[in-house]
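Forum: Protein Structure Q&A
Topic: Joint prediction for protein chains with partners

I've read a bunch of threads here and the consensus seems to be that you should model interacting components together rather than docking separate models afterwards. I'd like to see that in practice. Below is the full input, 1448 residues plus whatever partners are listed. Could one of the regulars post the assembled result?
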Amino acid sequence: MNEANLTLGWIPLFPLVAALVNLVFGRWFMRTLGDRLGREVVHLIAIGAVAFSCFYTFSIVFEAMIGQGYERVVHRIYPWIVSGETMIGFDLMIDHLSAVMCMVVTGVGLLIHIFSVGYMAKDGSYWRYFAYLNLFMAAMLVLVMGKSLVLTFVGWEGVGLCSYLLIGYYYDESEKASAGRKAFIVNRIGDFGVILGMLLIYAVTHSLDYDAIKAACAAGPDSALVTQTIFGMSIATAATMLLFVGCTGKSAQLPLYTWLPDAMAGPTPVSALIHAATMVTAGVYLIVRLNPLFALSPVTMSTVALVGAITALFAATIGITQNDIKKVLAYSTVSQLGYMFLAAGMGAWVAAVFHLVTHAFFKACLFLGSGAVIDACHHEQDIRKMGGLRKKMPWTAGTFLISCLAIAGIPIFSGFFSKDEILLHAYTNASAWSPGLNYVAYGLGLAAALCTAFYMFRLYFLTFEGNFRGDHHTWEHHVHEQWIMSFPLVVLAGLATFGGFLGVPHVLPGHLPHVLDEWLHPITQLSATFSGEYFVGVREGFGDEHGHVRAGVELGGMGLSVGIAVIGILFARSLYARGPSAEAASWAQKLGGLYRASVGKYFVDEIYDRGIVRPLRFASAVTYQAVDQGLVDGVGVGGVSWTVGALGNRARIWHNGNVRRYLAVLLLGVGLVLASVFANPTVAVVGPNPVHPVDAGGLRPTLGAQPIHIEGPTLFTDTPWFEFDAGPASVRRPGPPPPPDDKPLQPPPRDPKPVVERDRKGAP
Amino acid sequence: MTALLALLAPAAAAAPAPSSVGATALADMGHLAPMMIVAVWSLLLLAADAFAGGGMRQFQRRVALSGLALAGAAALMQFGTVEYDAGVPVFSGMLAVDHFSVLLDLGVIAVMAGVLAFAGDYARSHRFEYGEQESLVLIAGFGMMILNHSTDLVAVFLGIETMSIAIYVLVGARWNARASAEAAFKYFIMGAFSSGLLLMGIALVYGATGTTHLDQIAGQVAQVFTQWGASQPYVDLALHPEGAPAEAVRHAIDKSVMGMAPAALFIPGLLLLLTGLLFKVSAVPFHMWTPDAYDGAPTPTTAFMAAGVKIGGFAALLKVFVGSFATQRLATAPYGWTSVVAVLALATMTIGNLAAVQQSNVKRLLAYSSIAHVGYILVGVVAAANFYGHAFSIGTMRAADQIEWSRETGDFSVAAVLFYVLTYAIATLGAFACVSWYGANKTEGTTAHEWSGLAQRHPGMALGLTICLLSLMGMPPTVGFFGKLAIFRAALENDNPMMRVLVVSALLNSVVGAYYYLRLVVSMYFRPPSTTEVPTLPGRGARVVVGLCAAAALLTGILGDTAFRRAELAAAGFPYAAGTERRAAWVDKLRTRWEDEALADEAAAEADAKAPANGKADAKAPAEGKADAKAPGEGKADAKAPGDAKAPGEAKADAKAPGDAKAPGGDAKAPKGDGKAEDVKRAP
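Posted by a regular:
Agreed with the consensus. Here's the joint model:
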């Protein structure tokens, strides 16, 4: 492979160092340099680091990859875990997929850092905010640049930590702190799946390097990942299912999505960066990164697609009725992530990445716009108390509108291209459950698109059109725009508008190339070679001779989705163009139970609470009281310590200082030691000893050696049962010669001659 | 100093076969230079005290310490040299100089220096200053060194008595405290009793074998039992005389008595010897004196007893039992003396720990803890004896590699015992030094509540004591952990149920031990300071010793392998008589193994360094790619670390182990009075 070796370590290192600097010295900066200058220093460090990463990433992508044509850039920072034959390096890599992710992460991240300067301007622990944000950048970059699943998992956990820290940023409000906890715990459930999946893969491939996994998949259906099974399913299925559990946690899919709406407790730029643009897309990244592996498991693929489609509609219907500006956007994010999983599940990897990118642009723009609004409205988040803000915040309203058009899927805007590609592939791509899954997925997707258009424009109209419904004072004194917050919005709106040209469909006039498809070709080419039930691509009857979807189907699908989007927008306009109308209320009346269910978010949180959390708490309370306090601490630890204490007391009192007793004990001891003679058959037994195996001495089992009698003269010719000696004279010390057999016994010589040879070194 | 040593040791060693008795004695003294220096200095100090007034105390202490520095330097120069690989028998085979004895000498010297560093301050502060202190410590140390070198039962007895009598005096030296006199009295009564037992044992063994020389006893044991075995037909006849002529029966009775008498003398003699030596190391049930004597004695003396006497006692135990009485039937389970020792080891560690649990007196607590440690060490002794017993079993032969393995593992077990004894000495010296430091002007802070909150008042000392206690507890990375690890490993290599029971109970006992050590740590760190402030010892001796012991406990732990190699060197070929080629061959073998390992490490490091370099051969890689080239340099540096294992190569060129290069730096400091407690670590 054509790969370059550049020091990529700087990319995550810079934000990491900046984070450490701000964590350690941030408070000091703020104190010693004064509030204003201190803030300047803090955010310049933070933004500078991210800007550097961004610049470095872009220069690598454009210089090395596009300019010099390297297929990828790798960098081994050091051999990280070396154990036996396992070697896991701390290896970073930018290949075509990582390049896209890195550019999105650093680019959008940079803009959001800049926006934060305005948004957090009055925050007390400014340095902490930027430190966490930088830490997040470092972790996210490790996640997308890791060359092995292990390193990706390091980043995965790192972003989870930062997410927790930033959701609970306002930790003095217990509700927000517990939202952070919730996010962390729900993510842990998913992470557990990731670990198990990693272990399963490792068991087969003996490596977690992406190259190794890809190589293991290269054999397609014949690879060990497919042929080996566990619990009746192939390793590929089991592993990908487990990984997908992790993805549902990290990317807020059913059934683990509940943390994301609560995560809006964090500062709004955080929601934009972590909970919309970057971190939550990690699951999509992981699936696309492991696309050959996922392609080898049709079961998982169908599950992913179905979960994605259902989540897309499910979250969209909740979004319709929410009144908190950030909650609407949160459910919208869940819904859009559902689209990405739908695409990934249908094998439309490029479409998934494409939507990931465009979604990062427009959703970041929307979140930042909402942040600007919230800031302007004095931290009011209820859209029923807004309205008419366009007059005072034209830039914000304009960019918000553009992003709404993009997410709704109106042509020209980026969302149109990406979402349309997903819907198209949902309909035309082959699936193992085909064609039923195609129709279900497509239907759900279209319905979600309708809802999306409706709730986004409901949000837009209620916020920016009509008359202001908040209090007069706020309107007069607070509502305004700051350039530092508008500037990122404008850039993001521009990207949201034109980002779609990365992937223009072939049928459209002008025959622009589908840039992203070509760019990601090295990533997806392996899974495209699979056939049979593992086939990923346009199904039979829908493709033309080039493997593209037939023009008629494509154009028809486009028309349908655009039509639906327009219907949704117009419907929203008719209900909300001048604020919440009576008509809207009557619709709510008409829908009745459905409406209440949507407002109540389908009571999923309550169900989880009753069904899982409370029983778990009850069980843990019981085990705590009965098992831990009662059995372990009470009987076990308490009992042992009581026994030891009592024995110790007895032993202590025993040594009472009475010297007669001491001597008595000593004598007793001597007596016992001497009495041990009688336990010793060598002396106590008079008469021939029973021959016992020499190994009764209890040494290590012999190496199969049988006792061998020494050749030549031995000490004990007349007593063969006797094996008592200090060793043959040749081995040990020279002793007096043994008595000849026929001589009468003599007592041992009384005056030993100094027979020990002195062998002094150096002596002649 | 160096010049003097050059005169004494190597010159004497290099001398050709001695022509006269005088020359022999001179040469032998040269070999025993450290011991001789200690002896001469003790007499010198004793003589000087007769003329010196009270104002000379400080000077006397300095003289004593400088003498110890000299002795330490001499021992350092001896240790690890090829000359002593085989061991040199001296004084007609009464003593021998080998790595084993020199390493233990270093330990004893270090302990003496450590004790003397604060014993004077202690005595002055508690108003019982006396001039003989330094001299007595040196005499007791001299006795310990005799034990380290002894190869004859007479020397063993001499050493034990020399050591004990000086220590009786040291224990009772605090004339203004009743407890001190009481402790000395008790210790003396019981010590005299045990000396009697020991002497009785020696007499019986001599009666059975006709010799007191340990190596000759080992040879004679075979004879004794062969005789016994050969007399069995006569015994049969004597017991069942039916039909035999009366003359023959009388002859048979004569023969059987003659044949069985030596064995009947030998076994009780061996067991009495065992009790005598176990008394000195205070194993249960011969331990009863320990808490009282440790508690009543002036604390520096307690430190000396806990650290020094143990070294000497175990040296004797190893020499006599593991070295001489470790034949198959004599030693190994289930019939031999190791069974007795195993049971006593179990009892020792259990009773020591249990009694310590409830102690509120810190001195008594540490006394019981020292008893518990004896239990652990005895496990190693049993393991070693079992291996040698296997290796030297006669009448049958096993596969040669198995015998080889047994001997090697036996050496390892002896090394484990040495390592444990020395590291235990370091830690316990530090702990007792801290106890001595805590109290002045006739008040001592020995009750537990007086130690609460120590970390707030004296953070440095609290930290030092904590490290020493953690080492005693066996917590990594302190050296105590590696000592326990080595002992347990040795025991488990002995694949037999008894040893497994011993190891498991030792582990459980360590848990109990952790409780009372940590209780002290917790009370120092997490309890509010006691209301009455305990005065602390003036002078910096105790503080320096605590610091050095703590540092040594940490450093030897971190450099565990390097430190353990010294013990391995000392134990190589242990059961072979000093001065034989066989002994030297085992040391050579060990050195060759180290050299091979070092070479293999180096090769592996080089291979590692090369791997990343050719892994990424990309001609087009831009300049930044060079950053990778850093790897090889680091790899080399790592490979160098275990470099001091290269003993043989250098040693042959010059009779000096590489570790010695460091020694002079350490010695230079010694005369300034900061007790070279870390000598053990620095030794080779």
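Residues 617 and 639 of chain B are 25 Å apart (CA to CA).
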